[in-house]
Request: fold
Amino acid sequence: MLGTILNIVAVLIGSAIGILAGNRLPERTRQIVINGLGLVVAVVGMQAALQTRNVLILMFSILLGGILGEWWGIEDRLEALGHWLERRFSGAANAAAGSRSITRAFVTASLVFCVGPLTIVGSIQDGLTGDYTLLAIKSMLDGFAAIAFAATLGPGVVLAGLTILVYQGGLSLATMGFSSSLGGVTRDAPAIIEMTAAGGVLMLGISLLLLDLKRVRVANFLPALALAPLITGVLMALGVK
Reply:
């Protein structure tokens, strides 16, 4: 869990710096920063998505994952949590945010921090071997991203630390529990590659949100991150390449 703790601390520090800097930035500067982040997220997402070795696995993972996510109402539940947190911390946080939505900041930052390839591979590696090197690298990246997000979206970015704790920490703990059967898992494993590709598609959806091009219900596609390695494993067991 040390990698996850480092990640949360980095996000908190970055968010604090961004909140302080954000109040001094004009609105047009904030907008150009968030657009720049959207472009970078699009590039990272495209790179990850293109790693897939079987586009049919990627397609079925995304489509089935979206159907399941819509059925379960993941996006609505995540937004409901964001609204609850917004009401819970509505005092000083809203004053600092002004017209900026804590819910939007929480949901957007949570997705960016938790669907990338380093989250998956780093959490598994940390749980299997205790090596938190990848998560330490991710912590530095997330820390700088938190500065930009908090400066433009507001203090709701701080709450994304809760998502990192639950999702990333939970993944590491779950991996520890299944360490005997997951030994030897690396970023080059077929299941991890397809999971990373699915995460890349989700990041492309996030970039559309940041660029104000299209509101994609990205959270509803989160089941694809579990379906991609599952489908890959089934096909490998059947001898299908």
